[in-house]
Specification:
Blueprint lengths: L1 H23 L6 H23 L5 H6 L3 H22 L7 H20 L6 H18 L1
């Protein structure tokens, strides 16, 4: 059970730290310059963890397994992070922007899951999406 919960704790803790950092980035810093340093730091940390977790003789073999998804994920992450930085710069609050974005994301992923991955779309999920939209209306009025 703990193996099921720990990844979610990591996601929540990292997301909290992420939003604090994104909101705290000075507005006079070029967002993409800041992201460049962010990704250089992330690349260094990932490289060290990769080398620690992989035997050196297997490193190239492991890297050879990588496909287009890693590149696409990198592009998606740049869009995600730039979007939040600019959202905060135009006035979104840290207690509101992630809630609105993640609610919209959840609705989109329910539909994407059903279409691309043939996941079930239940009446409970449809009702939940309707409640999410109602919640968004209440949050933003």
């Amino acid at each position: 059970m703990i193996n099921y919960i720990i990844p979610i704790i990591i996601v929540v803790a990292s997301n909290c730290f992420y939003h604090i950092c994104s909101k705290s980035m000075p507005s006079n810093v070029n967002a993409f310059g800041g992201l460049m340093i962010t990704y250089l730091t992330g690349a260094l940390v990932c490289g060290l963890i990769f080398l620690f977790m992989t035997k050196s003789e297997n490193a190239l073999f492991e890297l050879a397994k990588i496909n287009w998804t890693s590149i696409a994920l990198g592009i998606a992450i740049v869009g995600l992070e730039a979007g939040y930085i600019y959202a905060y710069r135009v006035g979104w609050q840290v207690n509101n922007a992630p809630l609105v974005a993640n609610t919209c994301l959840a609705i989109a992923l329910v539909v994407i899951g059903a279409i691309l991955f043939k996941e079930n779309l239940s009446l409970k999920q449809i009702f939940g999406m309707i409640l999410c939209v109602v919640g968004l209306i209440f949050i933003n009025i």
